[in-house]
Amino acid sequence: MKALYAQSGGVTSVINASAYGVLDEARKNGLEIYVGINGVTGILKEKFLDANDLDIEFLKYTPAGAFGSCRKKLKNDADVEKLFEIFRKNDIRYFFYNGGNDSMDTAWRLQLEAQKRGYELKVVGVPKTIDNDLPHTDHCPGFGSAAKYIAIAMMEAAFDLRSMYVDSTQVFVMEIMGRHAGWLAASAGLGWINGIGADVILLPEQPFNKDEFLGTVDRVISQKGYCAIAVAEGLKYPDGFFVSDMGFTDSFGNRQLGGVGFTIAGMVRSELGLKTHVAIPDYLQRSGRHIASATDVEEAEMCGRMAVRYALEDNYGVMVTMERVNDEPYQIRYSSVPLNLVAEQTKMLPKDFFDKYAVTDKFFKYALPLIKGEPYPPFRNGLPEYKLLNLK
Amino acid sequence: MKALYAQSGGVTSVINASAYGVLDEARKNGLEIYVGINGVTGILKEKFLDANDLDIEFLKYTPAGAFGSCRKKLKNDADVEKLFEIFRKNDIRYFFYNGGNDSMDTAWRLQLEAQKRGYELKVVGVPKTIDNDLPHTDHCPGFGSAAKYIAIAMMEAAFDLRSMYVDSTQVFVMEIMGRHAGWLAASAGLGWINGIGADVILLPEQPFNKDEFLGTVDRVISQKGYCAIAVAEGLKYPDGFFVSDMGFTDSFGNRQLGGVGFTIAGMVRSELGLKTHVAIPDYLQRSGRHIASATDVEEAEMCGRMAVRYALEDNYGVMVTMERVNDEPYQIRYSSVPLNLVAEQTKMLPKDFFDKYAVTDKFFKYALPLIKGEPYPPFRNGLPEYKLLNLK
């Protein structure tokens, strides 16, 4: 029985730990395991890697998608036809797809089509997203490490700002990933548990009120002299218009959509007359394996293992989930949910996790266990010793 | 005999290690030691902190300026007059100023004025700058840690890009600090020692040729499918015009000067038709103490200690320097240089440290010892346990 694993969607610093979990568990259980290169994009070209004898230790500490990822959505019947042709030809009977909302849609579609075609295929989704927006799971592998990265980045930047504000920059803005949900932006407040963090957090869940925001910054400045701001890229006005719309067209007449961080800083600069600095960590926040969370790495691996176990128990057409059993001491239980309940759904930050521009105790209780522990990668020459697979 | 220590200019993740060196060495040698809050800006307001019994352990691992920094230049005679009044009143006889080019100018001015006035004052500069552009020293405390941060950020981003390029983003651009010299941007190439780094590095030392640059990106893309670009904020056209000039005015008629990273990405997008991502680490690169270099932390502390020793040996009016004795094994010797030889000078990246868009073996030999070792800060709640002093 052949099994196929593949990665899909935006990568994380621990998606390879899930790959490790799937591959190791599959091999232990006697499955013949292959990896599809670049998700369904590569599978459609029969780009497979034989993982049965592959040295997989490096997956535990190497960030991003070691086997390549893809952005492809399965919208096209010809693609589905081609995929089943390839599955059949290679006798693929298990498919473990590691991704977020869109990828679970692909997984669900394949499971349905297999049933329709009478082709025996067991599909199990392995959750992955720094956005933490998959429903029916307490949280997602990838989020804890990205949250830790953001929390630390904001702490360090706030220390910097605090050094400089007396006669220089008074406002620091960090633009954080999250087009729909504010889980990551909220994490910029976690540093307060150790004494410093974001003073103002702008979430997609809360419609942006410019005057109120500027009033708040002004108040923070008059109280402490400086203000550290976290803004989610998906921040919207009450009418749903993205704040990141830069408000002008370029010389080619194209509407400029750009860094919401610069838009926010521009407001502060022009309306409050304060000097600003802007950081955009971009990829750094989702591939910062050097400062990953140990909880996240362990859970990512376990989600991979559970996917294999569920498939072998004939629990398929599902995605692996985590249920929170207890906050302190932190305890979770692995479970599963039908793929169709996850596909293309988005879990927003609950209303009681934030209060205007700050995060609440409930958010701290929720998020702090997820960022715990420092599973440093090995270093050589003063730099992480990540490993590159040849994918050609 | 009273001694005063203060921090000045843009901060680093190890400037507090220098503070630790100065304070500890001063106390061991029986000096009464005070700290000026926010450099000369606070000293002018007599904002002193008695550091004789202060618990200073936290300085070894807390980033940014624990005592506040400033951007003030001493251009004004009234300020100089006021400073000497305050020095005299408090019987300050040693002044240790921790900063970069501008700060050494201030230190030099104070040393000169003291002599002119017949006021016995021993001024010693402690070098500090992530830009690494102070002359007469092999390198500067602060650079090694920032270089390590940049090297790792670029490695991790390149892993991310490599996962995504097949059907999504093919070009990643990281904007790196350095208005004059390209030391930090060059560090984005260091990851190659472990297999991955920046494919194209744009330095202020090399006038920007747009066509040649785009041709190079095009070639890299056709060879490997993706291209990771590092660009220094000070990148200039051959006529000295900053590339970061965005080429348009805002609705208020102001010329937009903005992220050179976005400018470069815009060229790639519009001329080569490739999807891009842009990261701007900003403050994160200079305060990222969580991934500092052990060599840098140790040397920062020693530079602080040497400043005190030199002053006590009557070697003053100088800045502490480091001379490279050997590359492998790495060995340096501490020395000193008259402040006037450092003040307002800039050390550029030597021509044999780069070749077009890449760094040379000479740069690796120079920089690799400086990023070695991982002196992790203590962690609590999954986050660094940095300490905040009350400066009010």
TrEMBL record, chains A, B:
<feature type="active site" description="Proton acceptor">
    <location>
        <position position="131"/>
    </location>
</feature>
<feature type="site" description="Important for catalytic activity; stabilizes the transition state when the phosphoryl donor is PPi">
    <location>
        <position position="128"/>
    </location>
</feature>
<dbReference type="GO" id="GO:0003872">
    <property type="term" value="F:6-phosphofructokinase activity"/>
</dbReference>
<comment type="subunit">
    <text>Homodimer.</text>
</comment>
<feature type="binding site">
    <location>
        <position position="233"/>
    </location>
    <ligand>
        <name>substrate</name>
    </ligand>
</feature>
<dbReference type="GO" id="GO:0046872">
    <property type="term" value="F:metal ion binding"/>
</dbReference>
<dbReference type="InterPro" id="IPR035966">
    <property type="entry name" value="PKF_sf"/>
</dbReference>
<feature type="site" description="Important for catalytic activity and substrate specificity; stabilizes the transition state when the phosphoryl donor is PPi; prevents ATP from binding by mimicking the alpha-phosphate group of ATP">
    <location>
        <position position="102"/>
    </location>
</feature>
<dbReference type="InterPro" id="IPR000023">
    <property type="entry name" value="Phosphofructokinase_dom"/>
</dbReference>
<feature type="binding site">
    <location>
        <begin position="129"/>
        <end position="131"/>
    </location>
    <ligand>
        <name>substrate</name>
    </ligand>
</feature>
<keyword id="KW-0418">Kinase</keyword>
<keyword id="KW-0460">Magnesium</keyword>
<feature type="binding site">
    <location>
        <position position="10"/>
    </location>
    <ligand>
        <name>diphosphate</name>
    </ligand>
</feature>
<dbReference type="InterPro" id="IPR050929">
    <property type="entry name" value="PFKA"/>
</dbReference>
<dbReference type="InterPro" id="IPR022953">
    <property type="entry name" value="ATP_PFK"/>
</dbReference>
<protein>
    <recommendedName>
        <fullName>Pyrophosphate--fructose 6-phosphate 1-phosphotransferase</fullName>
        <ecNumber>2.7.1.90</ecNumber>
    </recommendedName>
</protein>
<feature type="domain" description="Phosphofructokinase">
    <location>
        <begin position="5"/>
        <end position="308"/>
    </location>
</feature>
<comment type="function">
    <text>Catalyzes the phosphorylation of D-fructose 6-phosphate, the first committing step of glycolysis. Uses inorganic phosphate (PPi) as phosphoryl donor instead of ATP like common ATP-dependent phosphofructokinases (ATP-PFKs), which renders the reaction reversible, and can thus function both in glycolysis and gluconeogenesis. Consistently, PPi-PFK can replace the enzymes of both the forward (ATP-PFK) and reverse (fructose-bisphosphatase (FBPase)) reactions.</text>
</comment>
<dbReference type="GO" id="GO:0047334">
    <property type="term" value="F:diphosphate-fructose-6-phosphate 1-phosphotransferase activity"/>
</dbReference>
<dbReference type="GO" id="GO:0006002">
    <property type="term" value="P:fructose 6-phosphate metabolic process"/>
</dbReference>
<comment type="pathway">
    <text>Carbohydrate degradation; glycolysis; D-glyceraldehyde 3-phosphate and glycerone phosphate from D-glucose: step 3/4.</text>
</comment>
<dbReference type="Pfam" id="PF00365">
    <property type="entry name" value="PFK"/>
</dbReference>
<feature type="binding site">
    <location>
        <begin position="177"/>
        <end position="179"/>
    </location>
    <ligand>
        <name>substrate</name>
    </ligand>
</feature>
<keyword id="KW-0963">Cytoplasm</keyword>
<feature type="binding site">
    <location>
        <begin position="283"/>
        <end position="286"/>
    </location>
    <ligand>
        <name>substrate</name>
    </ligand>
</feature>
<keyword id="KW-0324">Glycolysis</keyword>
<dbReference type="InterPro" id="IPR011404">
    <property type="entry name" value="PPi-PFK"/>
</dbReference>
<keyword id="KW-0479">Metal-binding</keyword>
<keyword id="KW-0808">Transferase</keyword>
<dbReference type="GO" id="GO:0005737">
    <property type="term" value="C:cytoplasm"/>
</dbReference>
<feature type="binding site">
    <location>
        <position position="101"/>
    </location>
    <ligand>
        <name>Mg(2+)</name>
    </ligand>
</feature>
<comment type="similarity">
    <text>Belongs to the phosphofructokinase type A (PFKA) family. PPi-dependent PFK group II subfamily. Clade 'B2' sub-subfamily.</text>
</comment>
